[in-house]
Design brief:
Number of helices: 13
Largest sheet: none
Helix content: over 70%
Oligomer: single chain
Order of helices and strands: HHHHHHHHHHHHH
Mean pLDDT: 83
Number of domains: 1
Strand content: under 5%
Shape: globular
Radius of gyration: 19 Å
Length: 299
């Protein structure tokens, strides 16, 4: 039985908004990396997110606390790798590598999800899904390499790239481990709990960072940047992604992360005054085509 068109459109929206907000997070995180060190940025982000989501999450958190205890180790694991570790590693890696390399490594997430899912979770991979993955990844590379594939051989990977790649591994695991959280646990309450756990884990790291002499430089711009990363890529994007994984599955939800370079290009045009080129159009078309192809006969 086919799903209603409205339901399919809603699912596409749920899966598409997180990469939009995360693309903005990437731009903002790079822009203020000299003013706010990584542990401070991560902690500040999640403190803002926690107070934003708490009024909506608290009733569910009170109701589900017995389930939290029953699945405590799974919840601790997803909070550690997906909330506390992922963003801290990205912010740390951006101090030592280029944005181009960071975006390229970020685009490895769907591949890692399928790889880990196939190896450890017996995730069934359909031919159309694999073809869609290959097509969308080719689109990602087209955008990143400006349509010049010879640039791929010139990429120089550094220690910062390894840090960001470890963040990508964390996100792939987070996506797969979310599947082990039962649907009976409310997803808004789950997000509130994950953020709370992340704050507890980040507090000693923030104290260490401040103690070793890396204080933030606060200004009107950095406060606005912190507000953005605390609301849009945190509360809204994580909640929608959690819902998307529950409805569409880990592999399909992870594939939508390939939209990040699409949104990154458009945001650069809107806010940085950059121009769109033919390779952008080709890359975006390939990404959207890959997503459409991988979604056929998937539910």
């Amino acid at each position: 039985m086919k799903k209603p068109a409205a339901s399919s459109l809603a699912l596409y929206l749920i899966l598409s908004l997180p990469p939009l907000f995360w693309a903005g997070n990437f731009v903002v995180g790079r822009a203020i990396h000299a003013e706010i060190p990584p542990f401070t940025l991560s902690l500040g982000r999640w403190v803002i997110a926690f107070f934003c989501i708490l009024p909506f999450a608290l009733p569910a958190m009170r109701r589900d606390w017995r389930l939290y205890w029953q699945y405590r180790w799974r919840l601790l694991a997803v909070s550690l790798v997906g909330v506390a570790a992922f963003n801290t590693l990205v912010y740390s890696g951006l101090h030592y590598t280029t944005a181009t390399n960071g975006i390229l490594l970020n685009s490895c997430i769907p591949i890692l999800i399928l790889l880990f899912g196939g190896l450890f979770y017996r995730l069934r991979l359909h031919l159309l899904q694999l073809a869609g993955l290959a097509l969308s990844f080719a689109g990602v590379l087209t955008i990143i390499l400006h349509g010049e594939w010879s640039r791929l051989a010139k990429l120089d990977f550094s220690g910062g790239d390894l840090v960001i790649f470890s963040a990508m591994v964390c996100w792939a695991l987070y996506t797969l481990w979310l599947r082990d959280i039962p649907a009976s646990i409310n997803r808004i309450g789950l997000m509130g709990l994950q953020i709370f756990i992340a704050i507890v884990l980040l507090l000693p790291l923030y104290a260490w960072e401040y103690h070793v002499g890396a204080p933030p430089v606060w200004s009107h711009e950095t406060w606005l940047a912190l507000a953005y990363v605390g609301i849009f890529p945190s509360v809204i994007a994580y909640t929608l992604y959690t819902i998307g994984v529950a409805r569409a599955g880990a592999a399909r939800a992870g594939l939508f992360i390939h939209l990040m370079p699409v949104f990154g290009s458009l945001l650069s045009v809107l806010f940085l005054g950059e121009q769109l080129h033919i390779f952008h159009a080709i890359g975006i078309a390939a990404i959207l085509g890959g997503l459409a192809l991988s979604s056929r006969n998937q539910g």
